[in-house]
């Protein structure tokens, strides 16, 4: 079975409780379910990893780099200075989408630049939990395109 990596960084494990006026009321389990629903029709399953530690997220990227078809990554605040996560994602050989629940450009200045985004296949911001669904739909398309290229 084909597997999609859903990677979430620090503080995202408390979604639904953490500043719901910014991040919404959906929990991370809800979001994992939404992503699983989006990709189920293609026969994909989702492996969901959330950790407060950058090192554990790096380990997860390495552990799943050849066993997954693509990834959805919400690095949380690691977007600002998560250099080791950035390097791990640079070595991830599949398409991946960076997602942020809030519109980072409508917030504090320090959130306006991601060290990770330049490596991503795409970035979705400001659409709440819907952003994860859209990222999953995009990966369905990107991975089909990559598979078609590999068979030529």
TrEMBL record:
GO terms for molecular function: 3-dehydroquinate dehydratase activity. One of its GO terms (biological process) is chorismate biosynthetic process. It comes from the Bacteria. Its EC number is 4.2.1.10. Pfam families: DHquinase_II. It catalyses: 3-dehydroquinate = 3-dehydroshikimate + H2O. The record marks 18 as: Transition state stabilizer. InterPro entries: DHquinase_II, DHquinase_II_CS, DHquinase_II_sf. Substrate binds at residues 74, 87, 101-102, 111. Signal peptide: none annotated. It is an enzyme of class 4 (lyase). Pathway: Metabolic intermediate biosynthesis; chorismate biosynthesis; chorismate from D-erythrose 4-phosphate and phosphoenolpyruvate: step 3/7. The active site is at residues 23, 100. Keywords: Amino-acid biosynthesis, Aromatic amino acid biosynthesis, Lyase. Belongs to the type-II 3-dehydroquinase family. Catalyzes a trans-dehydration via an enolate intermediate. Homododecamer. This is 3-dehydroquinate dehydratase. It comes from Longispora fulva.
